[in-house]
Amino acid sequence: MTRYEAIIGLEVHVQLATNSKMFCGCKSAASSRTPVPESSAIQDVGPNTRTCPVCSGMPGALPVVNRKAVEYGVMAGLALNCQITRLTRWDRKNYHYPDLPKGYQISQHDLPLCHHGWLTVEADGRQKPIRIRRAHLEEDTGKSHHRGDHSLIDLNRSGVPLLEIVTEPDIRSAEEAYAYLTKLRTILRYLGVSTAEMEKGAMRCEPNVSIRPDGATEFGTRTEIKNLNSLRAVRAAIAYEVKRQTAVIESGGQVQCVTMGWDEHRNATAVQRTKEEVQDYRYFAEPDLPPLLVSREWVEEMRGRLPELPDAKRDRFIIQHQLSAYDAGVLVADMTVADFFEAAVCSYSGESKTISNWVSGELFRLMKESGLPMDAVQISPTELAELATLVDQGKINYSTAKDVLVEMFSHGGSATEIVRLGGLSQISDQGALQSAVTQVLAENPEQVRQYMAGKETIIQWLMGQVMHATRGKANPRVVIDVLREQLGSIE
User: Fold this and answer.
1) Is 105 within 8 Å of 49 (Cβ atoms)?
2) CATH number, domain 430-488
3) Cβ-count burial of 14 within 10 angstroms (0-12 exposed, 13-18 middle, 19+ buried)?
4) How confident is the model over 346-394, as pLDDT tens digits?
5) Which of 48, 164, 278, 324 has its CB surrounded by the most CB atoms within 10 Å?
6) What pLDDT is attached to residue 230?
7) Is the model's pTM score more than 0.90?
8) Strand duo 258-263 + 223-225: pairing
9) Could you report the per-residue pLDDT of 118-176, keeping only the tens digit for each?
10) Which H or E run includes 259?
C-alpha cells in the first residue's frame, strides 16, 4: 500500500494592535494589546462608525502609511529571524468582494517588508526549523454579516493593519502546524504587536495542503483552506484534508486546485471556489504611495528594544531556576504567567521548582475551571510565595494549602490571614496528636493486626484516618512518628 507524505505551508494573517488603521486615522478594531471581552470589543460600536473616505474606498481619498504598523512589522520580522527589506513598495492586489470597498487591497507583492526567516518548533520530540518565506504588510477587508437572504457589510475592520506571514512548505503534519502556530502566537504576544486571538479574528490561518508518495520529490496539487479561526480548527482541518486527498488519489481520482472551507459541524472540508492564481490579482505598484525606506539605523534601534523572547526565557529558566525543559516551556508559553512566576520566586526563599509546581498545578487548574487568564487572577505573586512559605514552615500542610489557595482565588486575601481566621494551622505537636492516634488504633483493631503481622504499608491507611480525625490539620510526618511509636509499644 502506498504511503503518502503531507506537504503543508501556512499563510497567517495577523491584525496589528495599532491605535489607528493602516492608511488612515480611524480607530483600529485591533488596537487593544490585551484580550478584549466580547462586550467591549468592536461589537460595542455601531457598524460602519469607524470609517472615513480612505478606508471606505471613496474616490479621490489618499492613503497615508501608519508608521507604528511598519514598526510592528519589523519587530515581528526580527523576532522571526527575517531579513528586513531596506527599500520596499506598496502594490494593488485587485479582486472583487462585497466587503472590499475599493475593489483592491493595498499590499506588498514583489518586495515584502520581511523575508527569509525561520521559526524552530518542537514536534514529535524533536526540534525542527520552519522556514518563513515572507512577512508583508497589507490592509484588512470589511466584514460580511449574513442574515437570511441578505448580507450586511460592516467596514469597521476595513483598513486594519495586517501582517501576512507565509511559510515555505516545510510542515509535514497537522501537529507540526499546531506547534508552529502556537509558538508564533506566543512570540507575537511577547512583542505586544497583536493580541493574536484567533477566536476574535486577530490571527487567521490559511493552510495550503498537498500530498505526495513517500520518497517523491514533486509536489502534488494543493488546496487552500480559508480563514481558520482556532488552533483546534487548524489541526482538525489539515488532518481531514490529508485523509480526503489520500482517499481521492487511492480511488483513482485527481486532487483539484480549489479553495476549501472548514465546516465545524461536519468536521469536514468543503469546496468553496476555484483557487485564484497570482495573475488573477493583476498586481501593479500602488500609485498613491511612495516606496517605503526602512533605514538600517531604525532596524537596529528596534532590535535593541525587542523583549526577551520565549526560547531565550525558557533557556534562562532552565539554568537560573533549575527547572526541567518541560516545566520551563509551560511557564514561558504565556508571558504573564512567566512574569508572575519570576515575581513569586523573588518573594520566596525556597526552591523555584516549588513555585513552578504551584503555578502549573493548582493555579492553572483554578484558572481553567474559572476561564480566567493570569492577568485577571486576584492572587498576587507575593501572596502565592507566602502560601508556599507557610507549607515549608510546617504551619499548614499541602492539603490545607490547596484549600487556602481556593479561598484566595475566589475571594482574595493573604494566606496567613485565611489560615488564622479559619483555625487551619497545622498540628505538629506530638503530644497534641497522641489522643487522635490512640483513638484511631482503638477503632481499627484489624488494621493494627495486619501491621503487626508485617504489612507495613497499612500505616499509610492509618495515617489517613488520623488526618480525617483532625480535619486535615495534622502534620503527616509527625503523625507517622506517633503511629510508629504507639504501634511499637503494642505487645
Assistant:
1) no
2) 1.10.10.410
3) buried
4) 999 999 999 999 999 999 999 999 999 999 999 999 999 999 999 998 8
5) 164
6) 94
7) no
8) parallel
9) 999 988 788 999 999 999 999 999 999 888 899 999 999 999 999 999 999 999 999 99
10) strand 258-263
Q: Once rounded to an integer, what is the mean pLDDT over residues 261-284?
A: 86
Cα–Cα distance between 371 and 365 in angstroms, integer?
10
pLDDT at residue 276, as a whole number: 66
SS (H, E, C) the chain: CCCEEEEEEEEEEEECCCCECCCCCCECCCCCCCCCCHHHCHHHCCCCCCCCCCCCCCCCCCCCCCHHHHHHHHHHHHHCCCEECCEECCEEEECCCCCCCCCEEEECCCCCCEEEEEEEEEECCEEEEEEEEEEEEEECCCEEEEECCEEEEECCCCCCEEEEEEECCCECCHHHHHHHHHHHHHHHHHHCCCCCCHHHCCEEEEEEEEEEECCCCCCCCCEEECCECCHHHHHHHHHHHHHHHHHHHHCCCCCCCEEEEEECCCCEEEEEEECCCHHHHCCEECCCCCCEECCHHHHHHHHHCCCCCHHHHHHHHHHHCCCCHHHHHHHHCCHHHHHHHHHHHHCCCCCHHHHHHHHHHHHHHHHHHHCCCHHHCCCCHHHHHHHHHHHHCCCCCHHHHHHHHHHHHHHCCCHHHHHHHHCCCCECCHHHHHHHHHHHHHHCHHHHHHHHCCCCCHHHHHHHHHHHHCCCCECHHHHHHHHHHHHHCCC
Whether residue 34 has pLDDT greater than 50: no
Over pLDDT 90: what percentage of the chain? 72
SS3 content of the chain, % helix, strand, coil (to 5): 40, 20, 35
Report DSSP state, residue 307: P
**Residues contacting residue 243 through CB under 8 Å, at least 6 positions apart:** none
Q: Is 441:457 a contact under the CB 8 Å cutoff?
A: no
Helix, strand or coil, per DSSP, at residue 228: strand
Cβ contacts of 240 within 8 Å, gap of 6 or more: 267, 268, 269
What is the CA 164 to chain-centroid distance, rounded? 18
Tell the residue number behind the cell numbers 504489612, with chain if given: 455
Query: Domains of the chain: which residue ranges?
Result: 12-196+278-302, 308-422, 430-488
pLDDT above 60 for 37: no
Query: 40: pLDDT confidence band, cut at 50, 70 and 90?
Result: very low
